[in-house]
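Example complex used in Figure S2.
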Amino acid sequence: MKRFISRCLALASVAATTAVVSAARPQYGGTLRAELDAIVSTLDPAHAVADAKEEAARARIVPLVFETLTIVEPEGVRPLLAMSWDSDARGSRWRFRLRPGVVLHDRKPLEAWQVAESLRVSEPSWKVAPEGEMIAIDTGEPSPDLPWVLADPRHGVAIRGSGGALIGTGPFRIDHVDAARVLLKAHEPYWRARPFVDTVQIDIGRRLEVQLTDLEGGRADIVSVRPIDSRRLSRRGLHVEASRPLELVALVFEPHRAGDTALAWRRAIAGTINRDAICTVVLQGNGAPAYSIVPDWLSGYARVVVPSAGPALSAAAVAALPVDQKTIVLRVDPGDAVTQAIAERLAVDAREAGFTIAVQAPVGLAPRADARLVRVAMAATTADRAFLQASGRLAVRGVAAAPLPPGSSLEATYHAEQAAIDPFIVVPVVHLAELYGIGDRVGASVNAAARPTGGWSLADLWLQDGKP
Amino acid sequence: MRRPSSATDARVLSFAAVGFHGREWWPTLALAALALTTSPVPALAQPPAGFADLAPDFASSIVNAVGTSGPVRVAFPPDQARVQAELIGLLATRGVRTTDNADATLVNASCAVNLRDRLCVAEVGRGEARRIVMTTRPRPAGADPDAAPIVGLALRSIYTQRAPILDVAVAGDRLVVLTPDAVVLVADASGANDGGRPIASKPIATARVWPRDLRGRLRLAGQNFDAFLPGVTCRGTINPLALVCADDSDAWPIGLENSGIAPSRNAFSTPDGFTFYEAAPVGAGRFLLAGERGALTLMDAGRRTAVRSDAADHVAGFPGACVADAAYVILGARTAEPDNDTLRLFRLADARLVPTGSTTPLPGTLTALWSATASGPATAVVHDSSAGRYEAFHLTLSCAR
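Predicted assembly (869 residues):
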């Protein structure tokens, strides 16, 4: 019997090994079907959009078509269309050496003057000029982090052809754009090798719930996934890929609750938050407890960002509060199920401490809220730029942006961030990653579809039913 | 070895005594086995000792913050023992005494890498007296392919016996061997069993019936050691060899918070109930967990990410080895050949395992794999059923440029 069992185990092992080694060689061809929830009004990288959702959607599509001089990878800022760069001592005059052999979507070689022209459109305040194979940029003011700035998709090199057509150098070229769909075709002479798939079909304006069912029904290959849905996909055997954490969910008190006299009150409410439970239960393991604004992988110092110590309200003091101070109206985006779920959990935790949180998800006019639960996205960049980006977006919601000059040292950034959270007006709750559900048709590739630094990497994806 | 569910009836380890066939070609080959490969992922040029180049300035900053009048207690994350040791040495040369005394000023430090910088940061003191000390250096700006390390996995056979081995630990010139029945002290451990001979043994006194997939772990601290078994914790001394066991489910020293292994089980679980078999530290407080059905999961600050990879039943990590901000892990998996498991070396890049191409066959079935601790080696135990023996190996990474 023992020998029989051993043989069964051996056979099972062989079967497992067979499964492991039977992975197919990547195939070329086919149409990869992706979906996004936002409407994308333009793919012009230099065109600024105000809507955060549209900006996030554009950040996925634009880099597939328009490449930047530099790119941010997990290892830091790296060359892309530029091969190398140098600057003067002030960091205001820069020269970027253009990569040779890059071919535009119209199959003509990319030239330095075209890059200069594109950058002048994306940043009119710069003086940009071609110098042989180099591109000279004079920013006027010191800009020690210019290579990081140039990695922003808005500085994607876009050549404006006749009739307003935009062409780039990326792995895909624009084939068709309408209000519901973007079609991209593989760029055959792409300098980093042609993508596996022939076509990427991106359906836009698809609600997240619809995307989920499309993925489950085999009608989509890559969709955006909310943390609260990841377990459902895993149970169906579908794969979920994540970036590194790039978004902060924070409790932000409104100005009438942000005074110094209410500091102990805010500290008491912040003390009720059970971040571990939110990450484990509500976000199904897809969130990281946040005590800082900037995630640790972008700053490295997050563990020492600690809210200021001081008196909080005792249980007796909370019980003795007037009703209007024991009740907090917490506003959330009515279209965001994730913040609504987190808010409901905050209400549960606060109730145990004697507070009542009324979650308000208004679709029209609503009573004044005491606090909001907001989501603030950050780019993968230097700590100071990420902090400035996040604090700038928080400032839109009535919180003063911390003064921090561009290119600040890490220590200065730490002190600014510490100062920003000390008053308990902004209370970090969790950090979220971009999550993507991957369909069954997508074969295992060397690089993930979800870039660690955010956005899609689709050139390496291949389809199991693609035509060789 | 495909780890069986505790509920199954499959016997995986046989505890019957088996014949000893002497040393064969394999251990000799294993001593020299050094599968070198170049990592396909561009790695950054880093100082050989990780953050060691930051340590002098970091130590000076700490001295400025605490002065030299009293002792300090230095704490680092468990996977940064090397920089901790470096810092303690530098503090000593600057006149600052370090201690484990809880009353001493706490220096709670860590080193990390963000996209632009490498940094070491410390909280010094607590409450109103709390200060932050930070030392930074820029990360290298460009990937230098020539700086990519050549990383290989080296195996060294350290002990062989007929009875099952659960874990081994080196204590000076002796070897402590944990078996299902006893803790055995072996002399001349460096002799790789040629000169190694058991000199003392103490039985594990317990009324418990061991689970079928029995696991055990040793932890040494000077002349004292602890032995962890499912539902049993033993404490002992090496000289003289002494052992006291009690039915107790203490947390096992695997780097990750756990509640030990339950008496009739073979798996760990995290405080939130996630079940795993092995945990490999991969730096920055992260762990790669080998779970049910060979699934690999990356745990980062409580957040779990499924790792897209071949299935693996065993996993061990070498945090901080070779490249400061790169993590290497080995996966143990069964091949089509029965009784010939392999170890494969990977570099962890985000939640992906990038194969380095280094694959090392083992002379049997891998029955235990424990991650490296601090600067020490990882440990593997292999059951060679044809030769009728269990063999323990130390695994290290060799790094060259």
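Chain B touches chain A through 51 residues (CB under 8 Å). DSSP finds three helices and 27 strands in chain B.
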